[in-house]
Design goal:
Elements (H helix, E strand, L loop, with lengths): L4 E4 L2 E2 L2 E2 L1 H14 L4 E7 L4 H9 L4 E6 L8 H15 L3 E5 L2 H14 L4 E4 L1 E5 L2 E8 L4 E5 L6 E5 L16 E4 L29 E5 L10 H10 L2 E4 L1 H5 L20 E5 L5 H7 L4 E6 L12 E4 L2 H16 L1
Parallel strand pairs: 1-4, 1-6, 4-5, 5-12, 6-11, 7-11, 13-14, 13-15, 15-16, 16-17
Antiparallel strand pairs: 2-3, 8-9, 9-10
Helix pairs in contact: 3-4, 5-8
Length: 324
């Protein structure tokens, strides 16, 4: 018999994040033909976003709208989601392993007195058990976990579990639930976003990253041009951030963001172990470095020994030819 699964959706500036659709795909795999119910929190009419979740595989969606949910807080969203969980009594919950997911899900797990498997990169089944695979030791190894009893609760790493095809012919009910959100202790007055206004780094399929080898903030310009051509995002090593070449919001690595794009281009990055911890699981890695002994070549699928200021513009030219 199928399991009833709940998927906690996440949006940014009114647009659902891709990891929400990936979470739906994971939930459907876990449910074994059971019902998949989406949850959306926010302000105003969330019907359009709810329909998007249905198009990507949710059977129905419950929205909770309140002015106190306009901006994410763990307290506000926690109250809303917990109320839906208590009403629906699901057998499992899935959410993206994003900044919001990493903040909200442990709080919910504590309130529900259940366990949580975080940062899942693969969901499979064997012998009637659902197996969750997650990286450990900064990606040097992987562990497999099963839940023997109680609620299934997991967060999935973006860009690892493929979403289902969008199908507008799918239909499902989108309803609104009234939840009395108690006064919030933290009040967010304003959000000032730092860093690039380009593609979201954690969900980008293509990332062009620079290290100390870019030599200056201006040195990132050819990388940005290549990223624009590829429809990708810009990233950086800690060395480049520490040197003041770019904002820390672009940092990839053990103390930065962990990314798993389809294509990762590392330009002028030596390959310190802390950086590799944040990108070594990328599907294809291309390294560009003047030093043929650079550690980055040990994890790269393709390596180019050369000056990035000569190689990157040529790559951009060739990519433009292919796109035409």
């Amino acid at each position: 018999m199928g399991k009833k699964m709940l998927v906690i959706g996440e949006s940014r500036e009114g647009v659902l994040r891709n990891v929400t659709f990936e979470a739906i795909a994971a939930a459907k795999q876990i449910s074994s033909d059971g019902e998949v119910v989406g949850i959306l929190c926010g302000e105003g009419d969330l019907t359009e976003q709810g329909n998007e979740m249905v198009y990507y595989g949710a059977d129905r969606v419950i929205t909770v709208s309140d002015e106190k949910l306009k901006t994410y807080t763990s307290e506000g969203y926690g109250q809303a989601v917990k109320a839906v969980i208590e009403d629906e009594s699901p057998e499992g919950i899935v959410m993206g392993h994003t900044a919001v997911g990493k903040d909200l899900t442990p709080k919910l797990a504590s309130k529900l007195e259940t366990g949580l498997i975080s940062d899942v990169t693969e969901v499979s089944s064997e012998g009637g058990n659902i197996i969750f695979t997650r990286p450990i030791y900064s990606g040097k190894a992987f562990e497999k976990k099963i839940i023997t009893e109680g609620l299934i609760f997991a967060t999935i790493r973006p860009n690892n579990i493929a979403s289902l095809e969008r199908d507008e012919s799918r239909s499902g009910e989108v309803t609104t639930k009234d939840v009395d959100i108690a006064d919030l202790r933290p009040i967010i007055k304003d959000i000032i976003r730092k860093g690039s206004e380009c593609v979201d780094l954690s969900e980008s399929k293509v990332i062009v990253a620079g290290g100390r080898g870019v030599k200056s903030a201006e040195g990132f310009e050819p990388l940005e041009e290549l990223a624009d051509v590829l429809g990708g995002a810009i990233g950086a090593s800690r060395g480049a951030c520490d040197a003041g070449y770019c904002d820390y919001s672009l940092q990839i690595g053990q103390t930065g963001k962990v990314v798993t794009p389809d294509l990762y281009i590392a330009a002028g990055i030596s390959g310190a172990i802390q950086h590799l911890a944040g990108m070594s699981n990328s599907k294809v890695i291309v390294a560009i470095n003047k030093d043929p002994e650079a550690n980055i070549f040990n994890v790269a699928d393709y390596g180019i020994v050369g000056d990035l200021f000569e190689v990157v513009p040529k790559l951009k030219e060739e990519m433009l030819k292919v796109k035409v």
